Structure formats: C-alpha cells, structure tokens
Amino acid sequence: MLTSHWPKLLMLIALGMSILLPVVVGLGEALRAAFGILPALGRHSFSVDAWQQLWQLPGLISSLRLTLFSGFAATIMALALAIFGSSWVYNISPKLFFLDKLKPLMQFIMVPVLAAPHAAIAIGLAFLIAPSGWLARWLSPWLTNWTLPPDWATVQDLWGLSLTLGLVIKELPFLWLVCLVALKQINVSKQMSLAQSMGYSHSLAWRKIIIPQLYPLIRLPVMVVLVYALSTVDMAQILGPNNPPTLALVALRLYTDANVQMLLPASAAAISLAMLMVMSILLWEMSVRGLMLVNKVSIRSGERASKWTLLGTILTTALPISFLLGLLSLLVLAIWSITWRWSFPEAWPTSWSFDYWLQLLTEWPLALKHSLITALMSSGLALMLTVIWLEVQDRFGGHVYRATLWLIYLPLLVPQIAFLYGLKVSFLRLGLSGGIGTVIWAHLLFVFPYVMLSLVDSWRALDQRYLSVAASLGSSSWTCLWRIKLRLLLRPLLIAWAIGMAVSISQYLPTLLIGAGRVESLTTEAVSLASGADRRLVGVYGLLQALVPLLAYSFALLLPRWFALKHMK
Amino acid sequence: MSLELSKFSVISHQGHTIFTPVDLVIAKGEVACVMGPSGVGKSTLLNAIGGHLGSDFRVAGKLVLNAQEVTHMRVAERHIGILFQDPLLFPHLTVGDNLAFGLKAKVGDAKQRRILVEQALDQAQLTDFYHRHPQTLSGGQQSRVALMRALLAQPQALLLDEPFSKLDLDLRHTMREFLFDQARLRLIPVLLATHEPADAHAANGPLVILKPGSSHAL
C-alpha cells in the first residue's frame, strides 16, 4: 500500500518545485532587497534604508488608505451583488428591471464581461464615464448644456471611486458564477420551502440559512478577488488616481524607475503590500466569523420579520446598473475601434472607418502573435497538468491532500508585484531572461489554478459507474481515461481551457516584468496606449483583448453542441 | 382547527390538470392519508397546500384553514408545516440551533427559549443532543429533530411527504407512532402522503386516493 503514495508524492514535489518555489524565491528576493541586500547593485549588507526611503515618499499614507478602501469596498460590493444576484436567480429577491426578461439567458450574457481582461473593462469604463465619455455625450448638450467636456475628475479620482467601480463591474460576473455553481451543492429550494413554512420571509430565510452554507464553498474565490482588488496594477493604472497611486502601483513605479537604486524601496513597497495582504485576509475572515456569529444569535432569537429594506433597494438598483455598465464598456470599445470622427457632444460618431482593423489584420502585430502564442501554450499546458494531476489522484487513492489545493492557489493569493520582480531577478541570475518561454511559464502560474478550479468539480462529479462498467468490459485505465473520462468531460474540459485563455490574455505584470519589456502583448499595449490620445487605436486593442477570450468561450460552448448535433443525425 | 380542501387541484402552465380535484376535511388531531401510484402528484398536492409550487403551476379550488381561506396566501403567512422525505436539518447549525430556528420568535427570552428547545429534545428522546451536529445523528434521530423543529414553529396544519420512506421497518413503526401522538397531542390536522397501506391503516383517518387528471381539462 505504501508504494501507492509515491506517484502522489512525486506530483506534490513537482507542484512544489513549479509553484511554491517561484513564489517563495520571488518573495525571498524582494525581502532581501527590502533589507538592503541586492548583489547586482553591489549591495551586500543589511540595512533598513529602503524602508526609510519608502516611508518618506510623499503621500504614502494616502496610497495605503486608497488601496485598502478600493480593495475592500470593491470586494464587499461585488460579493454582496453576486449573492443578491444568485438569490434573484432562485426567484427569491424582487424584480430587477430589464434583467428579468434576460433571466434564462443569464449565463450567456455574463460571458463577455467574465471573459474580458481587466484592462479592457477598465479602458471601456473610462471611455464611458470620463468627462468626455459616452455618458456625458448622451446627456449633452440638451440636458447639461456642455459643449466642451467639463473639468471633472470622474476617472482617476482621488478617492479611487472609479477604480472601485471598475473592480466591481469586472469581478461581479466571476463571483456570481462561482455562487451559482456552489449553490448547486446545496438543496436550496427544499430548505427555502422549509424555512418559509416555519414563517420566515424569502429574504430572511436566504440570509439565515443559505448564505452561511454558501460562504464556506466560495471562500477561496472570494480571497482571490480580495487579493486581486488590493493589488491590481493594470486597472489602477487606468482608473486609479495618479498621485498618489495605489500601493501596488507605487511599487511598480519604483521598480521601473530610471534610477536603479530605487529597486530597494520598490522591494520594501512590494513586501509591505504582501504584509498588507496577510492582514487584510485575516481582517476579512475575522469579520466573516463575526457576521456568522451575529447570524447565529439572530437564529436563536427566532426573529421572522424582514428588515434592511434599504440595503435591498440599493442592491436592486446597483445590480442592473453594474451589469449594464460592464456590457456598455465593451460596446464603447467596439464603437471607438471603428470610429473615424467623433467630436464631443455628439452621441454617436459622425464618420466611421475600419482602417485600424484592416491595418491590424494585414500586419499581424507582434503583440497579437505573442498574446496568442502565450495564451494557447499556457492554457494547453495548464489543462494537461490538471488532467494529469486529477488522474494521478484517481488512480492512486481518492484521498486529496487539502494542502495541495492551497498550494495550487498560492500564486493567486500573493500579490503579483510582491514576487514577480524578485522572480525576474532570479531568472536573470540563471541566465534566463525576457524570452517568450519564461513569459509562458510565468503565465502558467496564474492560468493553472483557474483551470484546476474550474475542472475539479466536474471531474469528481463524473459518475464512477461508467468507469466500473468500462473496466469490467476489460478496458485498461488508459482506455478509460481517453475514451470515457475525456469524452464525457469534453464540455468542462473545453470551458476550463477557455478560462485559461482568458486568464492568460488578461495578464499584465507577468508579461511586463518577466518579459523584461521586450515581449509586448495585447494587454501591455492596451495599458500603455490607454494614457495616450488616440481612442480609436486603444479601442482596437481593448476590444481585441476582449475578443480573443470571447472566441475561446464561444468555441468551448459551441463545439460540444456541434458534436451532439452530428451524432443525432 | 381543521384543514378543508374543496375541488382542490393543480394546473400546469400548459393547462393540464395534474390530478382529479380533491375534496377533503381533516379535523384537529386527525391524520389523513393521500395515496396513489408514484408520479400521480402526491408531492404536488402537498406543495400546493403548503404554498411551495413554482410559478409554472397554479392552484384551482379552495383551501381553508381554521375557517380562513389560504388558497393564495404567501407561504410564510400560512402556518402550514411540512416534512420532506429527507429530514433536511440545516448542516451549518447544531441540533439545538436547528430547533431554535423553528421556535416562534415571540416565545420568551433567551433562557426560556433554551429551556423550550431542551424540552423538545427530551420529548424526542434526544436529551443532551443540543450541541451535536446533524451529520452525527442516525436517520431516525434526524427525522425526530426535523419533526420537533416543525412543531416548535406551532403550525396550524402539518404536511408529511413520505417522511418514513427512508427508514427501516422497526424505526418506521416507532417514528409513525411518535408523529401521530404529537399531532393528536397538539390537535393539529395532518396530511400524510404515502404509498404504504400500513401507514394509512395506522393513521386511521380520512383517505384520499389520488387519480391522474385529464390531460387537457379546462
């Protein structure tokens, strides 16, 4: 029996080497540099100068406040809306305006925003809500009397409200889908019937019975969103305030400063962000525990009357708006990408042009090629690794090491900026630098957990009796894998792959840092163009960024149907 | 107290009548049974009485509870308890908190409420189970907790959807006796959906044999 542990142990070691090691080494490099040790710059002795330099930066306290506010506010709002939206899907909350008609199509209309990279949504939102944005154009001049864009900071505002809004819009569909998948594991309708038969209102039964069962199932994705919201670089660059920016952006600016000595305070900023993350996760979990306790006390009181109608009203209004803003952000990208002339108060472009698209299609810029190669390679590899990992567990005992799950998700729970620069330094030392191969590998760190996350439940839910039948008919375990498991799981496999594509396309920092600025991708181009003047070009790159994952999703959703149709004939 | 059904039936959104209309009066403390082949709509009938039907269905006829018509009333206001095949104890709450969830809000302060829950546990022969988690209980024990939870909400009628079908024979007998005793003690009208003649015999109350409805009535 002991021998059957070896394959699992080997896998564990392989995972540790490929996931834990890079994160630890990257963090270690940053930590050393934060305390004055960076041999490449001839620094060999311990010092706390870097920290002093960091603390003396003007506006650092504002940066911290901004980071915490936008991160927590966005996560809380996105989660509240996602849970509320799920209760609406289960016919528990009241009507949601135009969304009610779309309810049966919900899982399809979530896809565009779900698949679109963060940067694309951020750019689209900026085009929407900027003083010269689409919304202002719709309302001008008939309502506002504006013939020129007003001098307002609706984007990159000092409080980070537009950044928060962007994060909410982008994370809402992800958390919503995660909730809906998790709720399938809970007998929602019967438990709701029971609670109501005991005199509880819809919303109270949902809050007291369903949410406490739901949360433990979605804890990990919620953590991932919290970490992302606190440490995003690309969204903060587009939507967040410039001076002072969020802490992650402070770190990136110091890392990319012309003065290489700034690498030391940059590392201190990166380590601060990592520590901030640990404290934030603890604070979040403690608050959740607290809320659960309050819930338990209220259950003991047996209170049946529903309160909090104000919260209900807010959610009822905010959900359709967030949803609409997400779709409009993508739409405005599409419009700008085929615009020729669009002067300010006009609601629509006055002349159109496909020139940028034609140019793109004839030239096939490097950014597009890199993005496609990286996405195809990293998602393909991630899918292969996931299948191998799950199959090894199937064959050599069903017992799952719980720690392995956390190990796989580790890269998503540590701020990217905190370990990617350190990792780059280690790569340099090994003589690996700036090639597309290392970029693919860096993407894999983030693509693999998402592919695993999306496939693991369907894989385990596969009816084991099919396999028993096949085995009893004399099939080898390889035949079982190839002809039964992979065929039956075609749809979830393709969806996992599409998610991998989307995750890879959306990566900004891994491409920027590990590629050492030499591997441009759609996302790095879009982000760097976003601050520029030509909205048409930004529109093309932003939309293209969103289109590639969308095509992957469509392929994943349509291919199994096409197979099914073919077999019916 | 009584539960009265007159020409009570359920119609699907295509206009099909699920079962032939039911006329039935259940007096207080009486246990009525509804029987019929599987798939005929016993659960649908119970769900319709409790108000748990989805929006794909509508109810025809009249449902009167204690001289008040409740046919179209919201579930939470009907005060009609229901027990399903599975006990469905909330897995995130202890046995005691499951019962506390059922206990009426207006009853007593925290201390009194605790005492009432302990008493309910005693009645179900589950003394000292307050802090246990539902998953650690046997099937029969879970069923008894589910029943006590429903009763603590002080329902004016109780619906039982084959609640014994997953219990073995011995247990089914004791559970049935326990349930009927509780209903008679509290003077609650009970409607039991079952396919076991023994259940109907033990209930010793009115009996409805459900027949499939005409597929294009109305």
Q: Strand order of the main beta sheet of chain A, please?
A: 1-2
> Given the structure, what is the number of helices of chain A?
26
Largest interface: A-B, 26 and 34 residues
Rg of chain B, alpha carbons: 18 Å
Instruction: Tell me the series of helices and strands of chain A, N- to C-terminal.
Output: HHHHHHHHHHHHHHHEEHHHHHHHHHHH
The percent range for strand residues of chain A is: under 5%
Write a structural description.
The complex is a heterodimer of chains A (569) and B (218). With 569 residues, chain A is mainly α. Chain A folds into two domains: 1-35 and 354-569, Orthogonal Bundle (MetI-like fold), CATH 1.10.3720; 56-352, MetI-like fold, CATH 1.10.3720. Chain A has 26 helices and two strands. In chain A, strands 1-2 form a two-stranded antiparallel ribbon. In chain A, helix 18 packs across helix 20. With 218 residues, chain B is of the alpha/beta class. In chain B, 34% of the residues lie in helices and 22% in strands. In chain B, 44% of the residues are buried. The interface between A and B is medium-sized, with 26 and 34 residues.
Q: Which key phrases capture this entry?
A:
heterodimer; A: 569 residues; MetI-like fold; 2 domains; 26 helices; B: 218 residues; alpha/beta; 4-stranded antiparallel beta sheet; 9 strands
Write the layout of secondary structure elements.
The complex is a heterodimer of chains A (569) and B (218).
Chain A: H1 5-34, H2 49-55, H3 60-89, H4 99-102, H5 106-109, H6 111-115, H7 118-129, H8 134-139, H9 161-183, H10 188-197, H11 202-231, H12 234-239, H13 247-255, H14 263-301, H15 309-337, E1 339-341, E2 351-352, H16 355-363, H17 366-395, H18 402-413, H19 416-430, H20 436-461, H21 464-472, H22 477-488, H23 490-506, H24 509-514, H25 522-530, H26 535-568
Antiparallel strand pairs in A: 1-2
Helix pairs in contact in A: 1-14, 1-18, 1-19, 2-14, 3-9, 3-11, 3-15, 7-9, 7-15, 7-26, 9-11, 9-15, 10-11, 11-14, 13-14, 14-19, 15-26, 17-20, 17-23, 17-25, 18-20, 20-23, 21-22, 23-26, 25-26
Chain B: E1 2-12, E2 22-27, E3 31-35, H1 42-50, E4 57-65, E5 68-69, H2 75-78, E6 80-83, H3 95-102, H4 110-123, H5 139-152, E7 157-161, H6 169-186, E8 190-193, H7 197-203, E9 207-209
